[in-house]
Amino acid sequence: MNEPATQNLAKLATNSVFGIGGGIALCAAGFVLKWLVQPAGLALGGVIVLLGLTGVFSGNSTDRKDGLMVTLTGGVLLCFFLGIGPVKNIAGTLLSVGSIISFAVGIWNGIRFLAGLNKRR
């Protein structure tokens, strides 16, 4: 019987949690676009960019990918609140699409994790 390695299962579980959490965060960011005033939106976008950059400059390739996504999310918020170009007009759509993709990836990793757990029985 071909049992999945514990490290692979842990990675799938972590990616699942962060994927679903990322989807929730992107939904919240979309909500922020509608209800926050400009100074608070700029501050939030700046904090999100800085958090994402910590992942971008990490030594782990998975952290770099996740950090890039977080940085881009903060960049979309900043562009929206600064009124920069076409991003202002499509920011809500970008965040919605990103949220759906993040949820889907998180759920897919969760399914793979549970399947791997069942193989270990």
Task: Explain what this protein looks like in three dimensions.
By secondary structure, the protein is mainly alpha-helical. The protein is built from four helices and no strands. The protein has helices spanning 6-35, 38-56, 61-82, 87-119. The chain is elongated. The termini are close together.
List keywords for this structure.
4 helices; elongated; 121 residues; mainly alpha
What is the makeup of the main sheet? none
Q: What is the overall number of helices?
A: 4
Give the percentage of residues in beta strands. Answer: under 5%
Q: N-to-C terminal Cα separation, in Å?
A: 10 Å
Q: What is the count of distinct domains?
A: 1
Note the overall shape. elongated
Please mark out the parts with pLDDT under 50 across 5 or more consecutive residues, or reply none: none
Q: Work out the helicity level.
A: over 70%
How confident is the prediction overall: mean pLDDT? 82
Alpha-carbon Rg, integer: 17 Å
Number of beta-strand segments: 0
